[in-house]
UniProtKB/TrEMBL annotation:
Domain Glycosyl hydrolase family: 299-780
Segments passing through the bilayer: 9-25
Protein name per the record: Glycoside hydrolase family 92 protein
GO CC field: cytosol; nucleus
Organism: Cadophora malorum
Domain spans labelled Glycosyl hydrolase family 92 N-terminal: 50-293
Region of interest (Disordered), residue spans: 783-807
């Protein structure tokens, strides 16, 4: 996630619940608005036409629908006053301005949105009647639209604002109507800037200065991150073009003009700038260029000047679109007549995986380094499961740079992040899941100059060294973890300080993290470490209470044996296995000290989290049939919430009980029912594209077990799909035979890999790195394909199997 309620650790409040109210009058899909409705056009020849930017922009999706380059720092959109985590939302709420940096899909408080600008007329050209602070300056929305690299809205007052971007610079094109004052004088367009952000977090000093000769405006402010600790300073540099130079001034308080060209605002005092233009003639646009930096205002100006020297809106937009086309170009599909909505779901999910992390290379004030610097790993708890594996497939070069950025953070801050935004550490939600990202890259032999010895030291430090304050990085309760081989409830031996809840989910995540470290140890020739961490990888068993039953609403489910919280003296405490599922107190397991021993999910769910040793879990839960029954119950009883990332893997766990067909069946049960081409088409926070990567990988038919060299094979939702590996240049093609667009034939009957019989229900990364063709023959019923023990993906306790042994 993070989904966060108020509390002592996370002060953040989540707006999810409020939003349903707005839905009725905000649905751009059904509104017949005048000029450009926010309607997905769909189906054109251009891949960009398949991206619906407004998927997940209501009901907690929080996806950012504005203009951005892949991984870009500049993200420009109009901001609304409703569910504004992604700046703009499809919630019908009023608009408070346009801002230039955002995060996408996040929980926590609203992130970024610094230095919003607001176009307006001031009544009778009277500056004292302009709107300055946020609570004064809302305006209704008219029609709007967006596509990769472009955002367009006409406000209810007739002012149109379009936005496009380069890496660190936003370019706006404002078109004002020709309005007149009460005595008939033409009104002068005004653009105000507010030294604030979306969540009003500005503290300390802020600055604004106006160059009277050039009209250039520079400034800065110090802000707080949205789901973490610390502060960051951001800088901007704004220039106008397309009209005569405006007359600009500085305002303070609730809109008093001060007769200076430079001003420092101390404490929380409000302020900003105001620029007044000549009345529009003809079809004048006011082009507004906002350069951004986290280093200095002058660097913000340099960024703007070097990236957008000519204010050529059309050219900048075209360049942005081409960047996106290049990214999408690695995947080619043969549609096979599938519904256009499904194509939109696929490409929009793909699109959202590249909004964040954000490439801030050259913009990191915290240390000097020649390594790349990425930010907005928001959060790795979400993204380790499928987003980073997806990027490894479609953009290995950038994924490699992200891994190097993680290692550089470790080098200079001492720990890998579990969550990071705005140059600050974010909250850790469970284990140290960057370990999984690193192991995943390692075993898939991700190239690009990653220092694996450094990487190994980083993951070992997660496993061994506890910080005094471990809420923001690393793991807590390590002392007990090493002594008892689980994280006990009410841990009295904890050496550091942190929120001591979530002992069950932390235990299973630590176990998996250690499995991943063992894999790296094995490859890097640290043999002793490898056995140590493999042994800790079995610690999930220590919280398995074999006689625990589960009743729901007083009715025994019949399933026995669940993870449960345990005391250091080995006695058990009870947490209803359904608690924190949608069926029982779903809100009681956040980072708010609600006390849950599982994070944002129930013991029911976490009992399935043994990605390293599913064979052992299947046996423990009573064998394949019993396991399948229990997994069906999880999916069909209402216990599972697909809007949180732990749900992803459970869709594919049938592969381990020899029923790969049921994984395919589940995939179709959730797409498009819960992941669809509507404004609420994401069941929870998109979490920087984590949900996007789930739909995309699921539709590709190669969902990963992250941290392992395993992709579960299910039939792609397309007739055929090809993926080019941009590091090796090789192409992997997956082709469905007997494909039908209505998805009656979703069960694999037989498979050929490069012409040879392939019975394993999984494949490894060499298929993508080295290229090849996987042909799946489909039918309407489950078959024997991929069901034998030797066909199942590897598990720690059974002999690890190598995909290449087969042929
Ligand atoms: C311009 O005039 C129209 C018509 O009176 C009005 O609806 C609109 O709000 C005005 N726009 C602004 C920015 O004042
Ligand atoms: C603003 O300050 C300048 C220079 O200090 C001064 O010449 C000018 O008269 C002032 N204008 C107003 C409106 O006070
Ligand atoms: C980085 O190097 C520059 C130039 O030498 C120096 O001014 C700056 O203080 C350094 N920054 C940090 C965080 O070390
Ligand atoms: C479930 O476990 C509780 C506590 O051990 C026990 O009292 C109860 O009888 C069990 N229910 C069933 C149906 O086995
Ligand atoms: C689309 O997905 C959302 C979120 O999961 C869900 O609530 C909604 O019912 C779905 N809509 C359709 C038409 O399937």
């Amino acid at each position: 996630m993070p989904r966060v309620k108020t509390g002592h650790v996370a002060r953040a409040a989540c707006a999810v619940a409020v939003i349903a109210l707005y839905f009725f009058y905000s649905n751009p899909w059904s509104s017949a608005s005048p000029s450009k409705p926010g309607v997905w056009r769909g189906g054109g020849a251009d891949v960009l036409d398949h991206v619906n930017m407004f998927i997940g922009t209501i009901n907690g999706g929080h996806a950012f629908p504005g203009a951005s380059l892949p991984y870009g720092m500049a993200k420009a959109s109009a901001d609304c006053i409703g569910e504004a985590h992604g700046g703009f939302a499809s919630d019908g709420s009023d608009i408070s301005g346009f801002s230039h940096m955002h995060d996408s899909g996040t929980g926590g408080t609203i992130s970024l949105g610094n230095f919003p600008i607001f176009p307006q007329f001031c009544e009778d050209n009277d500056i004292s009647k302009c709107k300055f602070a946020k609570n004064q300056r809302v305006v209704g929305r008219g029609s709007y639209d967006a596509s990769p690299g472009y955002f367009d809205i006409t406000l209810a007052d007739g002012i149109r604002g379009e936005a496009t971007v380069t890496s660190h610079t936003a370019l706006y094109r404002f078109t004002f109507p020709k309005n007149v004052s009460t005595n008939g004088a033409p009104l002068h367009p005004v653009i105000t800037l507010d030294l604030n952000d979306l969540a009003n977090t500005r503290t300390g000093s802020a600055k604004a200065s106006i160059d009277p000769k050039t009209g250039q405006i520079q400034g800065s402010g110090i802000f707080s991150p949205s789901f973490g600790t610390g502060k960051y300073e951001a800088f901007f540099c704004m220039d106008f073009k397309g009209v005569e130079m405006p007359s600009s001034s500085i305002w303070e308080g609730i809109g008093t003009l001060v007769n200076v060209t430079t001003k420092e605002f101390v404490g929380y005092s409000h302020g900003g700038t105001l620029s007044m233009f000549d009345p529009p003639r003809g079809n004048d646009h006011i082009l507004t260029r906002v350069g951004l930096s986290l280093i200095s205002s002058s660097q913000a100006c340099q960024n703007a000047e070097s990236e957008i020297p000519k204010f050529d809106f059309g050219k900048v937009r075209k360049a942005a679109e081409n960047e996106w086309r290049k990214k999408f170009d690695v995947i080619k599909v043969v549609r096979g007549g599938i519904d256009k909505d499904l194509e939109a779901i696929f490409w929009s999910g793909f699109y959202r995986t590249m909004i964040s992390p954000q490439d801030y290379t050259g913009e990191n004030p915290l240390w000097n380094s020649t390594e790349p610097y990425f930010d907005s790993f928001y959060c790795i708890w979400d993204s380790f499961r499928s987003q980073h594996p997806f990027l490894t497939l479609v953009d290995p070069i950038e994924q490699s740079r992200m891994v190097r950025a993680l290692l550089d953070i470790w080098k200079f801050e001492g720990k890998l992040p579990d969550c990071r935004m705005s140059l600050c550490q974010g909250f850790t939600q469970g284990g140290s899941n960057a370990d999984v990202v690193l192991a995943d890259a390692y075993i898939k032999k991700l190239g690009g100059g990653i220092d694996w010895d450094l990487a190994y030291r980083a993951v070992v430090s997660d496993a061994e060294d506890e910080l005094e304050r471990w809420d923001y990085a690393g793991r807590g309760s390590l002392h007990s973890w090493k002594r008892l081989n689980f994280v006990p409830i009410h841990d009295k031996d904890d050496q550091g300080a942190g929120l001591r809840t979530r002992t069950v989910s932390r235990t299973v995540e630590f176990a998996y993290n250690d499995f991943c470290i063992a894999a790296m140890a094995e490859g890097l020739d640290h043999k002793e470490d490898s056995s140590k961490y493999l042994s800790r990888a079995g610690n999930w068993r220590n919280l398995f209470k074999s006689d625990q039953n589960s009743s729901i609403d007083g009715v025994d489910t019949g399933f026995v044996g669940f993870l449960q919280p345990r005391n250091a003296d080995l006695t058990w405490e009870e947490q209803d296995p359904a608690r924190c599922s949608p069926l029982l107190k779903p809100d009681s397991c956040y980072l708010d000290g609600g006390g849950g021993e599982t994070y944002e999910g129930a013991c029911w769910l976490y009992t399935f989290f043994v990605p390293q040793d599913m064979a052992a879990l299947v046996t423990l839960l009573g064998g394949p049939d019993e396991f399948t029954k229990r997994l069906n119950f999880l999916h069909e009883s209402g216990l599972l919430y697909m809007g949180d990332e732990q749900a992803f893997l459970t869709v594919f766990l049938y592969h381990y009980s020899g029923r790969p067909g049921l994984s395919a069946k589940r995939a179709h049960a959730y797409i498009p029912k819960e992941f669809n081409n509507t404004i609420n088409g994401i069941p929870g926070n998109d979490d920087s594209g984590a949900m996007g990567s789930f739909v995309t990988l699921t539709m590709m038919g190669v969902f990963p077990n992250p941290g392992q060299d395993v992709y579960f094979i299910t039939p792609p939702f397309f007739q055929e799909i090809s993926i080019v590996n941009s590091q090796t240049g090789k192409t992997a093609t997956i082709r469905n035979i007997n494909f039908d667009a209505r998805y009656k034939n979703i069960y694999i009957q037989s498979a050929l890999k490069d012409g040879n019989i392939w019975t394993k229900n999984w494949i490894d990364h060499s298929f993508f790195a080295e290229g090849g063709v996987l042909e799946l023959t489909l039918g309407p019923e489950e078959s024997k394909w991929g069901t034998r023990n030797e066909d199942l993906p590897p598990s720690m306790s059974t002999k690890a199997r190598d995909a290449k042994d087969l042929i």
